[in-house]
Amino acid sequence: MLRPTFVACFALMLCAGMLACSNPPRPLAAAANDDAPVLWPSHNDWHGTGSITITWPGQELNASVHILSLGGRSARIIVSDAQGEMIDDTIVTVQDGHSRVLTPQKLLDPMRHSLRHAILPVPEGEERDIRRDGLIQRRTGEGSFRIYAPDPHLLRQAHGHWGWVEIADYRLVSGYLMPHSLRGRGGLRRWHIAIDEWKHIPQEDL
């Protein structure tokens, strides 16, 4: 059976958008810009392109990745090879009640919680703790906690029974601070996404 080309993958991604613990990381110094809005995960619509590395016992995958994050509600992650052919395709949601794996490989399935925490604004409690290192810690209703710095709206890490994530390398894009390094662990799989480019998607383009 023919697998979709890169162009087909991207078209599918846009269509979906319209429809819709070992060695944890150390805290990182803040990199906020006083002139930039501090907000991640974002409630705007973004398309990110870059590369992904996934390692698990005895294996490693290096591939291209596309992330379509829609209004903080859902995110679609498509992994493709050097020829633009799809390797895996999944959708995660804020509540994670409607996560879908769109290809039979299920490569991303063990990582869906860590990807979800890295990209989407998971519901949190109102209380926050100021840690000794100055970072702000908030708990979610699913037994995990998220760490922000220096602003309570700039996510740096998340930890839970599903693993951990680290969000770093914030840069100014279209007036917003956007992370260009996302890495984490889900199950036995470690992953790292390096974003080459974020593009803000105006509502009229969706």
Please characterize this protein's 3D structure.
This protein is mainly beta. The chain has two helices and twelve strands, in the order H-E-E-E-E-E-H-E-E-E-E-E-E-E. The protein has helices at residues 6-18, 112-119; strands at residues 46-56, 59-70, 74-80, 86-93, 100-101, 124-130, 136-140, 145-148, 155-160, 163-173, 176-186, 189-200. The chain has a twelve-stranded antiparallel β-sheet with strand order 5-4-3-2-1-12-11-10-9-8-7-6, sandwiched between helices. Strand 10 (163-173) and strand 11 form a beta hairpin.
Order of SSEs: HEEEEEHEEEEEEE
Percent range of helical residues = 10-25%
Radius of gyration: 16 Å
Major β-sheet, in short?
12 strands, antiparallel
How far apart lie the N and C ends?
A: 30 Å
Count, helices: 2
Sheet-strand content, in percent, reads over 45%
List segments where confidence is low: pLDDT < 50 over at least 5 consecutive residues. Answer: 1-32
Task: Output the structural class.
Answer: mainly beta
- Regarding quaternary structure, what we see is single chain
Shape: globular
How confident overall, as mean pLDDT?
Answer: 81
* Strands side by side in the biggest sheet: 5-4-3-2-1-12-11-10-9-8-7-6
The count of DSSP E runs of length 2 or more, i.e. the number of strands, is 12
Provide the fold topology.
Blueprint: H1 6-18, E1 46-56, E2 59-70, E3 74-80, E4 86-93, E5 100-101, H2 112-119, E6 124-130, E7 136-140, E8 145-148, E9 155-160, E10 163-173, E11 176-186, E12 189-200
Antiparallel strand pairs: 1-2, 1-12, 2-3, 3-4, 4-5, 6-7, 7-8, 8-9, 9-10, 10-11, 11-12
